[in-house]
């Protein structure tokens, strides 16, 4: 299983990568922008994209919409500190597969994220 993590906060990216790889055995690559993520998606294969919402230049929903417009068939999880209904509604309209909140205990949030990743990847592969 390979995940592409997208967040404009490099410290948060490294923390996310460490938690997923060390505690949940989920391999991941990290990028700091949606533009860099689109380049990675052109070059490499991933099982799921996990993206922040609040990023400069292209927010998480614009990134999701771009992926869907390019017909890139990859599950997308919005991993965000924002819990606004408007954001969630727009994400659903654009084909998000799941949401995970960045708030609270890191161990609990990464456990939830790893469960969502596994669920989505297993559903896509038919397990």
Written account of the structure:
- It is a single chain.
- It is built from five helices and five strands; from the N terminus they run βαβαβαβαβα.
- It is an alpha/beta fold and 127 residues long.
- A five-stranded parallel sheet has the order 2-1-3-4-5, with helices on both faces.
- α3 (60-69) links the parallel β3 and β4 (76-80).
- α1 (10-24) crosses α5 (106-125).
- It starts with a strand and ends with a helix.
- Residues 2-117 form the Response regulatory domain.
- It comes from Methanosarcina horonobensis HB-1 = JCM 15518.
- Pfam families: Response_reg.
List the keywords.
single chain, 127 residues, alpha/beta, Rossmann fold, five-stranded parallel beta sheet, globular
How are the elements arranged and paired?
Layout: E1 2-6, H1 10-24, E2 27-31, H2 34-43, E3 48-51, H3 60-69, E4 76-80, H4 85-93, E5 98-101, H5 106-125
- What structural class do the secondary elements suggest? alpha/beta
CATH class: Alpha Beta
Distance between the termini: 14 Å
Helix and strand element order: EHEHEHEHEH
The helix fraction, in percent, is 40-55%
Could you give the order of strands across the largest sheet?
Answer: 2-1-3-4-5
Over the alpha carbons, how many angstroms does the gyration radius reach? 13 Å
- 3D shape: globular
How large is the count of helical segments? 5
Q: Report the sheet with the most strands, covering strand number, pairing sense and barrel closure.
A: 5 strands, parallel
């Amino acid at each position: 299983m390979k995940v592409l993590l997208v967040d404009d906060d490099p410290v948060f990216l490294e923390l996310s990568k460490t938690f997923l790889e060390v505690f949940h055995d989920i391999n991941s690559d990290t990028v700091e922008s949606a533009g860099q993520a689109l380049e990675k998606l052109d070059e490499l294969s991933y099982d799921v994209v996990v993206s922040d919402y609040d990023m400069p230049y292209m927010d998480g929903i614009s990134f999701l919409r771009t992926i869907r417009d390019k017909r890139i068939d990859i599950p997308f999880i919005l991993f965000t500190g924002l819990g606004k209904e408007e954001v969630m509604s727009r994400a659903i309209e654009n084909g998000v597969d799941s949401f995970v909140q960045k708030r609270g205990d890191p161990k609990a949030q990464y456990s939830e994220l790893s469960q969502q990743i596994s669920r989505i990847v297993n559903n896509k592969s038919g397990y």
